[in-house]
Amino acid sequence: MQTKLLTILCAAAMQWGLAGVAAAEPAEPTQKITIGLYAPTVEFGAAQARLAYVQGLAKAVEQATGIKTFAQSYANVAALKKDGVDFAIIDGVCYATNLQWKLVASANIGGGTTRPWALYSSVGETMAALKGKKLAFIATGCNDAGFIDNAMLESEVDPAFFGARSGKPDLTAAIAEVASYKAAQAVFAPVGAAKGLTKVFDTGAVPNPAFVDTSGKLPAGIVDKVAASVIGYGGSGAIAGWTKPSHEIYAALASRLGKLTKSAILANAEPVRIDAKDALIEPPTLKDTALVDVHHHFVRPSGGRME
Amino acid sequence: MTWLIAWAATLGLGVVQAPRAAAEVEDDLRDGDKQFENGDWHKAATAYDRAIAKAPGQVSAEAYGKRAAVFIILKDYQGGLDFLARAKARFPNAPEVLEQEALILWETDRKEEAIKVAEVVVAKRPQAFTNQKLIGEFYASRDPMKTAPAYEQYLANRPGDLEAGDVLPRIRLGLAYLALARLAIGDGDEPQAQRLFGKAAEQFDLVQHKFGRKPNAQVNAENGLCAALTGMGQFDQAVTVCERVTESPNRVDSTGSAWFNLATAYLARKQTKKARTAGTEFTHLRKTEARGYTLLGDTFFAERDWTAALDQYQRAEKLVKPNQPHEQIQLSIRMGKTYRRLPAPPSGQSGPSGQSGGNPNLTLAIDKLSSAFGANPGSIELALELGSAYLDARQDAKATALIDRLLAGAELARASPETRGSVLVLAGKALFNQHKLKEARQRFEAARELRPGDITIQRSLVVTINEQAFEADKEPKAAQALLEQALALDPQSPVTITNLAVLAIDRGECDGARQQLGKLESIRGHDTVVRTRLLARSYLCGTHPDPKKAMEAYAIAEREAKKANAALALAEIYTEWAPLGWDSDPNDAVEKLELAVQTSAQEPSVAPAAKRNLAIALFRRGWRAMREGKATEAAADFEKALRDASVLRSTEPLAFEFSYALALLDAGRATEAARLFKGLAAKGNQGGYLKGGYARFGSQLFAAYASYRNGTLAARHEAAAELAKLVQESELGDKIKDLLAACWESIAVDQWRGGQPGAAGRSLATAEKYATGDARRRITMDRAALALGKNSLDTIEGLAGNPPESLVNLGILYDQLGRPRDAYDAWTRAKARGVQTRDLQRWIDTKKRIYGY
Fold first, then answer.
1. Nearest alpha carbon to residue B723 among B774, B766, B664
2. What is the ipTM of this complex?
3. Per-residue pLDDT tens for A152-171?
4. A114, A205, B490, B572: which is deepest, by most CB within 10 A?
5. Among residues 445-504 of chain B, which lie with CB inside 8 Å of chain A?
């Protein structure tokens, strides 16, 4: 009896095992991870430093995931998209125009996930002095006009105000265009980045680069490991570190990229009142103010009694 | 023996009246007298016996008496009695014989028999001092009425050489006088009591000065003097003497009277604590005597500690004896007085309440006093106290009945004028309380005749006549005449003068009232608050009202009322003062009247006037607020003004409600306003409070007006349709066109906000047909704004900032045209003109930040 029961159980187990194998596709293990970098607003200084940074990060990811990880620095966002990298370190404005990517982490620069920006000038501190002058800008290819006219100039400045615009590959080049080469007279830059130039006005905060999952194909477990290793990556230099993803700062920038249009208003319709003098007959009895009957002052014993 | 010899000496010779029948008998009697004088008692006895044996009929009663005296001297009392039995056969009623019998009976301890005999003797021969002394001594502890005359006779008739023995007789006489004085007090005969206390003091004083060194003389005299001086009301001297006695306990007599009298004297001098200490000493010595506890009760009563006083009186009540009616009466009066003063226990602690307004203590007072009075119906003092308790308990009819009985009895006729006056005053008060003013006045007048100098009676009489005047209110002349009668009695009576002023104001004779009030100012005891308040009022009536002076006078009255914390008077003052100043300071007027209404809520003589004036003040302030564009405040005022319609007159409720509805509209509460307009339309009588066309078309017009102000697009469409029907009514003038234009303008704004610019444009076009002035400018701007673009610039600039919203639109145009500075300036001006739009400030700030303006 015992022998028979054992035989049945073993057979069932073998059947379940076979069924399990037959139900799943054979999983293809992740062979490698690719990380791209396009962050022209970050002051890496030189291209080598830029590449070194992303490679250091890739090494940390590889150690955390055990998967071979490759890193690549790009000169524009289009090239990065074309390569189909798994992950990307991408400028804030570019993520604001590609919010479909999954945000994994936000870069920490100067102690925060955003940096205040301002308009810097080489011809004085007033806006009037810049009229007709040339504006240098970081040409990210991520809605540059929206970024300049709407996010930076808040739709308050006529697009024709600047005489010309000069797009540069990164922040260093844009600032140099104004400060060193004098080919332009104004540039938008993070506060403190444009040495030797005069601040004209503050424009508001711009989010730092984002670490994003651009492919969306890697298993969630691997993405989580990557995210953990990125956030744990200290590093040093231009990007001080990474923090948990803060989606709203990029969404806020995205909302500023559109043009603001001012609507006309109608006048408050003053209500027409019916004046009492026109309509009301003042009751003649109103002048009959009441007097207190003094009779109760007639002095009498308390309670009308003598005790 | 000495006094017997002295007695014999007073008799003279036993032979003075003897017949001459036998010379031998005469000789024997002469011999007997001689031996008696020499003190040779045996020889004297032999001589007297010889005479009696020879001729008993020729021996005088005096000689028999002398022979009997020898028996006494030789202490042969039985022999003496035998001899006297024989002597009485011959002289059965001779006082000379009976006097000796009394002495022998006294000596043989048959005192009551002795006194019977002695009383026969002294009745025939008052100078029989030996027997007087027996009587005095016998009654000293029994009957002061017999003691006092006996000792008086003794002292008057005893031979001078017996004076040294006067200490005890005089002390006892003094004590008898004290006892008699107390009896006189009990009988209500105070003068007699004073005379007796005086006589007692004389005796004690004499003993103190003449026999002070004799044993016990000083002590007894001081004890007696302490009592007499207290009785005489010479309390300072009494305290000195009584304190001397009580300094040493062995000087205080066994009755402890020195403590009692000292306590009484202290109490009279209002030294209640010392009195209580002395009284307590007395109660330690005389634990069963009621008067000690009564006295202790008196000390607490003097301190107004009614509970403690009652406690002591209740202890006394247990000790007072049936044969002490005076003490009983006094105690009942005290308990009655105390119960009258005890506050009613808190509700819930029920006790006997009777008919005394729910105060069980008053009921107890009446019970106590009634019982005592039942037992002592002749006590006027008790009757007075009971009558007063009846008054306290508002049982005036009982008080009257009680006093009527008293007035009909004989007792009162014998009472002093003071007492009779008190009875009449009580009668007057009881009658007054029953509104029997004529009879009350008669009683007070009678009392005044008895006690012409009594100011309280005069005051009661004046008050009664004033009350008569009050009741004669409907006949001003009669009332005035009565008050003049009262004034004749007391020209300085603040009551009468105040009432004269009140009646004068009532009659509108305010100049006369002012004269009376002027007189009142210098009279002490008048009510300053009432005087100043009436004076202020007097400036508002009469032939020449003077509001300015009235206001000044009300300010003074206000100060006085505040000083006296007289809230109700302040309410009256504010009620009349506020209307004088509401044109210049409506807030102050409303504040004053609100306080007046709040304070006088329960006072029907003031509250309606205060409420009416407050309603009018609120109505007036409401309209002022409407003119100032403060519709919310105005609505609140009108709403409050309408709260008590009972104080409003004629068309006031309708006018107030109409005003409230208009204010609600301006305050944005159009739904409520519409409801009110509908209600007013239903009430009708619009011609009573609305002018011309408003009265004629009121229902239709105001319903449409409310709908226009309502704020919903649909309601405004309906309103526009209704108003269009009235546009031809000339009685409504241009107002109807203004309303129609404004209505379409509002519709356009609603449509534009709702994203219907086309519809808005059409509505503006309709509005423009009726609009004039500013409305027309607004509509022009609105139409330009609907299609704002470079082509609008001239139109908008042409408005020159009127309406101010045009500046906002002008700024937008400049901004579009790349003229940031002009845009900034236009928006800044718009802001300064009060334009409120969502982004205006942000636009200004951004321009300023970017361009550094």
1. B766
2. 0.78
3. 999 999 989 999 999 999 99
4. B572
5. 460, 463, 466-467, 470, 473, 494-495, 498-499, 502-503
